Amino acid sequence: MKQFVLSILCLCILGSFAQAQDTTAVDTQYWQYAGIFSFNFNRLDNSKYWQAGGLPVITAQGDIRAAANYQRNRITWNNSIIMALGTQKQGKGDSVDFIKNLDQLELTSSFGYRYKPKWLGTVLLNFRTQFAEGFEFPDDQPTVNRIGPVSNFMAPGYLELGIGIEYNPAPPLTFFYTPANMKATIVRIPEFRPRYIPQDITTGSTRIELGSKLTIRYQQEILPKFIITSNANFFMNYLQNFGNIDVNWDALVSYQLQEWLAISFGTLLLYDDDVKFVIETDGMGNPTRVGPRTQFQYNLTVGITYNFVSFLGLNR
User: Fold this and answer.
1) Closest by Cα among 88, 86, 110 to 99
2) Which of 190, 209, 290, 310 is 20 to 30 Å from 302 by CA-CA measure?
3) What global pTM score does this model have?
């Protein structure tokens, strides 16, 4: 399964860029690209004799968001990828590990046929997972006592494929609705499966769900050098827990201060009815209440950023 998903990922990326490079000079006008790359590094250290005290810190974060879109006559093919990874280390010595604080890998590809000026029939593919092993940490000693691991590459991984309609009311805004949407939750590591897959439904590595999905995208340069990107996904299972909605909402605000310097603020909001958390424990620390919870992450970065824009519908 891991090799299968990686093959899809590579084919979509390589296919889009290969087609852009292999077409004739006339065809290249149908491709448009956009991307933001940012990197932030920080190191704080002190000598053995330092009156004020404090811990040395090493922090590094990288974020790549890119898109390659093709449009010719009634045909559109839109591809986007998000890759983000961050780590930090607090303290000295080999016994102090680097701790992951940012980890995201997501690929989206849609193929559409425009049958009216603002309406398309669309096939939508989405894949998301993470790069590295993830742990939980208690609030009182986050850098000492880690809990886990609780996740890894393709544990979990999500693959979605849907057929539906696309509506473009204005250039920066797009709606996708897929009434026939397949969602596969893949957990390749057995001990992680009860955390992401209901064991009363399947004890295997993959759970297949059939439902509907609504995707809302917004991408606009509202002021010079000030760009907002938002991608919100809402999925509802037809067969189990009908009415419960899974949410995956990613947003980024970026402002280019100088040619190679920018400030960005990103958020990620998640809710999955099948992902359970410990809510209450007894006096011995044993879970007495578990359930789904809203997950939220934000990331404020000031650092080296390169932004290139040649995007369909992105006003400049």
Assistant:
1) 88
2) 310
3) 0.80
The predicted-structure confidence for 69-112, as pLDDT tens digits, reads as follows 999 999 999 999 999 999 988 887 777 788 888 999 999 999 99
* Residue 155 DSSP one-character state: B
Among 20, 17, 9, 125, CA closest to 72: 20
Which range of residues forms the domain containing residue 286?
2-310
Which residue shows structure tokens 């494929």? 161
SS3 of residue 244 by DSSP:
coil
Distance (Å, rounded) from C-alpha 206 to C-alpha 2?
Answer: 11
Question: What is the rounded CA–CA span in Å between residue 108 and residue 49?
Answer: 52
Residue with tokens 């990613």: 250
Provide the residue type at 218 as one letter: Y
pLDDT, tens only, 170-207: 888 999 999 999 999 999 999 999 889 988 888 889 99
Span 17-42, mean pLDDT?
67
- Tell me if 316 is assigned to some domain: no
Position 156 pLDDT exceeds 80: yes
CATH, residue 269? 2.40.230
Whether residue 163 is contained in a domain is answered as yes
Q: How confident is the model at residue 19 (pLDDT cuts 50, 70, 90)?
A: very low
Burial classification of residue 38, based on how many CB atoms lie within 10 Å of its CB (0-12 exposed, 13-18 middle, 19 or more buried) = buried
Mean pLDDT of the chain: 83
Q: Decide if 47 is inside a domain.
A: yes
Number of domains within the chain: 1
Q: What is the DSSP code string of 286-316?
A: -EEEEE---EEEEEEEEEEEEEEEE-TT---
Distances in Å between the alpha carbon of 90 and those of 52, 57, 96, 126, 300?
A: 17, 5, 7, 36, 19
Percent of the chain predicted with pLDDT > 70: 86
